[in-house]
Amino acid sequence: MVAKRSAALLEIEDKNLTHRAGATTGARLYSSRGTLRAARVCATCALFFILAGCCETAITTGSPRTGPPRALRQGEIIETATGRVIGMNRLIRKLSKVQTVYIGEIHTSVQDHEVQLEILKRLSRDGGCVELAMEMFAANAQQILDRYIDGPMSEADFLREVKWDEVWGYPYSLYKGLIDWQKQRRMPVVGLNAPDSIVGKIARHGLKSLTPMERSQVAREFHLNDPGDRQRVEEAFRSHGKYEIRDFESFFEAQLAWEETMAQTLARRQGQTQCQIVVLLGRGHMNKRFGVPHLTLLRRPRTTFATVAPVPVDYPADKLGPNLADYVVVTGPAAPYHPPRLGVLVERAPSGRGVEISELLPGSPAVAARLHKGDIIVGVNGKPVGNVDELRRALAAGGPRGNLLIERNALRLRVEVNMKP
Fold first, then answer.
1. ∠ CA(54), CA(177), CA(264), 5° rounding?
2. Shortest CA distance to 324 belongs to which of 333, 332, 315?
3. Short-list 253, 217, 181, CA closest to 21
4. How many C-beta neighbours within 10 Å does residue 352 have?
């Protein structure tokens, strides 16, 4: 199953690469960006901050000079340039001295978002002026963001107006604490990204296919000739399915459309505010010293910044280094992610109205709910469904329980489905 931000274009995120933009039919309704649910983590979610006052030690990185690395320990914060383990208080002191702090994430990791919120709160302590800039919102949603942060708009209206389920697709609960913190303090949340529809068009047809209006919604300048950046993106392109992507050049242009637009939006904001800016983005957008931090620095060379990457305790220690981030926060073990499953194969209905079930998987929630091959799903939880993409988004927004409106033999029926994670 493929959501709007999860079919054709890859978002580079270390080993958690997800597919973005475009659509397929006949897809197995199992996992996608639009159906991702927060992984469960242990109750001791605050353990990665217990070293706030500890003494500094050092961790090796597996080079021939230093010998094999020791295993990471939950709660450590590692300064990758030196290998030193530092405490949270020292990390905050270091971060408070720079203008921009980038905190990478694996989008489905609850622990990553907890690290982000803890750092945001600590930097904001004692009335600190800290803005939050987010990959998750397009730059053209800024007026909606401002109205929500500064006014009485309800959360439901906010999510509907920014089209959260369509544009981002991950559970809002993962980000709610971060946005609520800014709203409570009346501090800005800044949308950084390019519109998905335009990035998808670039992936399919190239940058030159954009109309003048579409071209105005992505960055003016694209750095297409950086060999290191091209290599970074090409590694992902070679390793994953191409879907509707025309060729590598279109893929590279589309990846840069996200990163260049985020960098342009961020650089402009840096020139407008006296506040520190905390940037949330997928870890792949800042790795190998390329991506958004690099592209922003090209636009504002005197800006100071630092990068932070939460990683699970089972992350390979020999992969740590400045190319990953300036500082690494070690969280609990990476939890395998199991999204809710409907357990069917679907395709666009021949009539063009709804999504037809072409196969049910044995033992699936669809079988338990007595759905049939040939049933046409036309709605989920009160939302109309016209194609596979809309079905994914509707299921993603509804959680593990879904109220499906189906057509069967010219009759309309409502079916309750419990989609086990």
1. 90
2. 315
3. 253
4. 8
| pLDDT tens string 108-143 | 899 999 999 999 999 999 888 999 999 999 999 999
Burial of 162 (0-12, 13-18, 19+ CB in 10 A): buried
Q: Quickly list H helices, 81-211.
A: 88-95, 110-124, 142-150, 155-161, 164-167, 173-185, 196-205
- Give the mean pLDDT of 296-315: 96
Could you tell me the pTM of the whole model? 0.72
Domains (ranges, CATH) in the chain?
Answer: 45-331 (3.40.50.11550), 342-421 (2.30.42.10)
The identity of residue 310, as a single letter, is P
User: What is the per-residue pLDDT across 216-254, written as a single tens digit (0 to 9) for each?
Assistant: 999 999 999 988 888 888 887 876 555 457 789 999 999
Structure-block tokens of residue 288: 């190998």
Q: DSSP secondary structure string, 330-374?
A: EESPPPPP------EEEEE-TTSSSEEEEEE-TT-HHHHTT--TT
Q: What is the DSSP letter of 167?
A: H
Give me the residue label for tokens 């079905």. 391
Q: What is the dihedral of CA 5, 34, 333, 132, to 10 degrees?
A: 60
The position carrying tokens 């669809």 is 366
379-419 pLDDT tens trace: 998 888 888 777 877 787 666 778 999 999 989 999 999 88
User: β-pairing, 77-79 with 18-20?
Assistant: unpaired
Residues 64, 366 contacting (CB under 8 angstroms): no
Tokens 């959260």 belong to 164
Are 74 and 375 spatial neighbours (Cβ–Cβ below 8 Å)? Answer: no
Q: Are 195 and 139 in contact (CB under 8 A)?
A: no
Span 156-181, pLDDT tens digits: 899 999 998 778 878 888 999 999 99
Q: What is the DSSP letter of 46?
A: G
